[in-house]
Amino acid sequence: GDGWACCTDSYRLAAVQVADMPPCIVPAHTLELVSKSSNGDIDMAVEDTRATFYADRSTWSTRLIAGTYPTWQNLAPTDTTTFLEVDADLLLEALERVMPLLTESNRPVIISADGDKIMLAARSQDVGDATERLAGTYPLAEPLGLNPIFLADMVKASGPGMFRLAVNGVSKPAVVRTDTSMSLLMPVRTS
User: Fold this and answer.
1) Rg (CA), the chain
2) In whole angstroms, what is the distance from residue 143 CA to residue 170 CA?
3) Are 143 and 111 in contact (CB under 8 A)?
4) Which residue of 1, 47, 55, 89 is most buried, as measured by CB atoms within 10 A?
5) What are phi and psi of 41, to 5 degrees?
6) Strands of the 117-124 sheet, one edge to the other
């Protein structure tokens, strides 16, 4: 039957519904290598304690991780009524302009409302400040801090057009959800 392919690094999570997916845990390093080595479709077979991946003319095999994957379905709220909405291309361009200031890996981009616009802000003690204002909506009263690289990855994965990010608060996960996929991003404290 259909299952979910899910991966996480504790700061973000992505899940996509996959046909005929048996329950198993594959090492992240294996998935990274397989995805970088193939330009097309990848088939997967699971037998007992091993997974084998077939792509192009290559075959990879790996030992599965024993155990049960943690329950992830309840991490993302399903009743969100507040959304950050902005054009995906404009957001990516703005992130590319402010990211050079964020040289430290834990520095967030700060998202807030600025009248009828969204404001992205970046601050570096060594370089200074940068802000970008974009047409869009941001529904929260407090600013939201997100890892700019992870946010850019999420925007790219969602595709062109309007990017719609469910936000329930500045300390709760931000989520992009479709019928067959979900991406979750944990916020970064801004103070």
Assistant:
1) 19
2) 7
3) yes
4) 55
5) -70, 150
6) 3-8, 12-18, 181-185, 174-177, 162-166, 83-87, 128-137, 117-124, 109-114, 144-146
